[in-house]
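quick one before i forget lol
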Amino acid sequence: MFDILSIIPGKKRRTHGGWVSFNGICCHHQGHRPDARMRGGIHIDGNNWSYHCFNCNFKCGFTLGKSIGYKVRQLLSWCGIDEKDILRWNLESLQQKDFLDFTKPAVRVNVNFEIKQLPDDCEDLNLDDARHFRYIEYLERRGIHYNSYPFKVTPIGTGNPVSRREHRIIIPYYFKGDIVGYTSRFLDDKLPKYINVQQQGYVFNIDAQREDWSVCLVTEGIFDALSVDGVALMHDDISPEQAILLSTLNRQIIVVPDRDATGLKLCDKALELGYQVSLPDWEAGIKDVNDAIKKYGRLPTLLSILQSATNSKIKLEIQRKKIGKQKGF
């Protein structure tokens, strides 16, 4: 991990009580007169530390095992630290122990998954097979090309009148080239629409993220992720294991939550983990990324996501209130 004192520029002076004083580096970034009286200070307790500037009152702190928060990221960037180094340090911290419960012993998060088998009767989705047309039409309605992902289908019924097998598209989960689970999306009008075979900590479409990409878009739903070559959490939270898996990508993470009450709560967890969040100014009827793709097209949707990405709590709160008013919650 990084040595915070070696990063702070200028002279330093040790004081009583375990504090190290120096000219605060945060003041002019906060709109205050630069500090010339060594009113910035860091208190170190083992691997943990807290920062307090008595000139502009900027405060932040770091605890080993916890994600590097927004204010610490600000402090590190003011010290000239590159974003890639911050992401690497964040991963190193998270790998020390379960960052949701610091009283527990350190745990290792397994980023490998058990290999799973797809249903025996599934077939590759095929444009030349007339039995597959309904599945292809469904994907087209969602703005997704049928051969953009290795979709599977089970078009042959089992003879059981209550069987739903012939109504499903199967979306396999891949990790390091192996199948580690899948989602069944049913096209009939019955519930549930989705049945997932998902292992803890898995992030959908993680294998498709290329090394030369500098950004990863994180969505809630599978079809949202497929629409923008992103990844999907497949629920409205980010688990500790998923956060570590995302950190291994070593790039900027932008979370694009669904535009509902539970989705907007995801913004807080994303900021806590040091990610950016994007809530584009889409029309009231748009509920998620895939809806935006169908309405505006892929390129305009991507541009709106990238242009709206921020880690400003104030900006996000304004947009959340606006969306909440549109949606009536």
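fyi The two ends are 43 Å apart (CA to CA).
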